[in-house]
Inverse folding.
């Protein structure tokens, strides 16, 4: 009659010889030899829409560039958008740059992940940001009455960016078609 402790030790030795139960190089714990051979099925089901990574890269560059411009050259950024209007204080523009820099770090990290949830959250964050920016600029335009080519281009580009981000958000969230 075997004792439970020696039975446990022999079972662990058997699993070690078979190569199951331990971690592999990716940190995954395999329950069976079949899971080791087949690998992780999640890696095969992720289908990225065409152009997603390009859009993520463009977004990260855009957020980083505007953030650096807002931090380093707040007068020029304000002048480019509001066409000659004088800046009363540089602090809000620099705070805006700091917030954009934080968002850009999230965008850069999302570029290197394959997790659908993280990609979708960054796309939703981006769409919300561009949507809020569109509303704020439109409200400022209504208050001040300033109209310039820079403001019109900003508004049109923000609507386009919202549309692209929402498109990819839904495309990443779609269930893959069965083959």
């Amino acid at each position: 009659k075997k004792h439970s402790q020696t039975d446990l030790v022999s079972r662990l030795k058997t699993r070690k010889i078979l190569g199951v139960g331990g971690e592999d190089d990716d940190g995954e714990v395999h329950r069976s030899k079949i899971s080791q051979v087949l690998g992780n099925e999640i890696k095969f089901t992720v289908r990225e829409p065409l152009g997603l990574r390009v859009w993520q890269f463009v977004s990260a560059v855009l957020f980083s560039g505007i953030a650096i411009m807002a931090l380093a050259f707040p007068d020029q950024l304000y002048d480019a958008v509001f066409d000659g209007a004088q800046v009363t204080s540089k602090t809000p523009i620099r705070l805006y740059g700091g917030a954009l820099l934080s968002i850009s770090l999230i965008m850069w990290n999302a570029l290197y992940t394959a997790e659908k949830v993280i990609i979708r959250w960054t796309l939703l964050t981006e769409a919300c940001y561009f949507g809020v920016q569109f509303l704020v600029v439109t409200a400022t335009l209504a208050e001040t009455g300033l109209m310039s080519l820079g403001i019109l281009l900003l508004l049109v580009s923000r609507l386009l960016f919202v549309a692209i981000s929402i498109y990819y958000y839904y495309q990443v969230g779609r269930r893959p078609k069965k083959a």
